[in-house]
Amino acid sequence: MTLNNAPSDTTQLRPGNASEAPVKATPAYEQIKRYVVKRISEGDWKPGGLIPSETELVKEFGVARMTVSRALRELTAERVLTRVQGSGTFVAPQRYESTVLEIRNIADEIAARGHRHMAHVLALEPSDDAQALDALGLSAGPAFHSRIVHSEEGEPIQYEDRYVNPKVFPEYLRQDFTLETPNHYMVRLAPIQRAEFRIYAQKPDAHVRRHLLMEIGEPCLLLWRRTWVGEAVATSVQLWHPASRFHLAGNV
Q: Which of these three, 61, 91, 121, is where a domain ends?
């Protein structure tokens, strides 16, 4: 494979009538970037796997070394690749992304990436946990409690530990949350008016770590969130994410 290693302001004619207005050629480094991303997205190059060296890519594309170097440098800055001095360039581990400034359904986020969501319900029960009752503004219990592991393409990416106000969602314990997430169920019934959240870097306990298939000592991104429907606190939830496979982002 050989690319036209022309500068970005070079032009090339469209096929057909030579009198047509010229269009700008895609810079060679951009073509290499697209090629690398394509090989990764099609599964030819796996996360954590070594990709061809700069020398090999120079030969394959017939371009200057600085062109290949720029392509790999930009892909590294974009966290598509990771470069280890003395070892080579590797496909970066996949990091799933979620928003924190907009409350979205994790199943929808996963579907938007073209992936399959699966939920494993660990608990769906009444609870008299004192801290949960206080967070929900309840003078007496029980509150409703659910613990669910959400997976993307079979890989667990979120441990959801949620307490729900039964006055707001009295049928919560009767739902099948393998078919519909708690978030989707609650928003469908009663749209959220207000929310507050906090984010922590924290090591999970053995129970959470085991269900997220994490190594001992590996940290989590923990999102604590409380939401209101009208004047009532509707839910208080802790969302645990393996830091090596997830990051939180948002726009305002």
A: 91
Look at residues 39, 55, 71, 236 and name the one whose alpha carbon lies nearest to residue 137: 236
Tell me the residue ranges of DSSP E strands in 7-154.
Answer: 11-12, 23-24, 81-84, 88-91, 96-99, 117-127, 143-152
Using DSSP's 3-state secondary structure scheme, residue 74 falls into: helix
User: Which pLDDT value is given to residue 9?
Assistant: 34
CA distances from 115 to 65, 89, 94, 119 (A): 36, 26, 13, 13
User: β-strand 88-91 against 232-242: which pairing, if any?
Assistant: unpaired
Cα of first residue to Cα of last residue in the chain, in angstroms, is 43
Does residue 61 contact residue 72 with C-beta atoms inside 8 Å? Answer: no
Residue 82 sits in which domain range? 11-91
Question: Rounded to whole angstroms, how far apart are CA atoms 162 and 147?
Answer: 6
Are 160 and 141 in the same domain?
yes
Same domain, 34 and 130: no
Asked if the bond preceding 22 is cis, omega within 30° of 0, the reply is: no
CA–CA gap between residue 202 and residue 219 (Å, rounded): 5
Q: What is the pLDDT of residues 202-249, one digit of tens each?
A: 899 999 999 999 988 888 989 999 999 888 999 999 999 998 776 555
Return the H-helix or E-strand segment holding 221. strand 220-229
Cβ burial, residue 159 (10 Å; 0-12/13-18/19+)? buried
pTM: predicted TM-score of the whole model, two decimal places: 0.60
pLDDT confidence bin for 98, thresholds 50/70/90: low
